[in-house]
């Protein structure tokens, strides 16, 4: 009964017909345009790191430049004397890093690092950062690539950022 009354009222009052549904092709185009716009806005929202964050990140890259050059002095220029490195279940300090670099003195050794910083935060004289570190090694003519997910805590000493703690997890290839 109620349906009949609504139908009769629509006939008598010249109510506009219900709009046609949007064609599927139009919906698809609208969805694609929305996704493109969202992606562009997201890219525009990502900001360049501050100068202070860049200094933190340069301290990290400086440490690994020292590792690549087997140069303990260069590593420690970017670290505190009480450095602790936690890598794959092993605890390293400045002495163990020095010993490892001295054992590796090999003219056939080459290491190139690449970094993808995920986040860098600074609170006063303390900073922390997380990043992917990829190293391409060449040892005695054999090539090898290793990737880590790492985080570090740095402190500011005499206006320079120094690594105090570095945590490193090897990303192992997935088993098939």
What keywords describe this structure?
Nuclear Transport Factor 2, Chain: A, alpha+beta, 176 residues
Describe this entry's structure for a reader.
The chain has 176 residues and is α+β, with helices and mostly antiparallel strands. It has a domain at 51-171: Nuclear Transport Factor 2, Chain: A, CATH 3.10.450. It has five helices and six strands; from the N terminus they run H-H-H-H-E-E-H-E-E-E-E. It has a six-stranded mixed sheet. The mean pLDDT is 84.
In short:
This protein has 176 residues and is an alpha+beta fold. It is 38% helix and 40% strand.
Secondary-structure element order, N to C: HHHHEEHEEEE
- Give me the number of helical elements: 5
Give a quick account of the main beta sheet: strands, pairing sense, barrel closure.
6 strands, mixed
Strand content: 35-45%
CATH architecture of the domain at 51-171: Roll
Tell me the strand order in the biggest sheet: 2-1-6-5-4-3
Q: Which class of the domain at 51-171 in CATH terms?
A: Alpha Beta
Terminal Cα separation, in Å? 65 Å
CATH names the topology of the domain at 51-171 as Nuclear Transport Factor 2, Chain: A
Helix content: 25-40%
Mind telling me the C-alpha Rg?
29 Å
Shape: extended
Mean pLDDT over the residues: 84
Q: Give the low-pLDDT segments.
A: none
Counting helices, strands and paired strands, the structural category is alpha+beta
Question: What is the β-strand count?
Answer: 6
Please write out the topology:
Layout (H helix, E strand, L loop, with lengths): L1 H11 L11 H22 L5 H18 L3 H6 L1 E9 L2 E4 H10 L5 E15 L2 E14 L2 E16 L2 E12 L5
Parallel strand pairs: 1-6
Antiparallel strand pairs: 1-2, 3-4, 4-5, 5-6
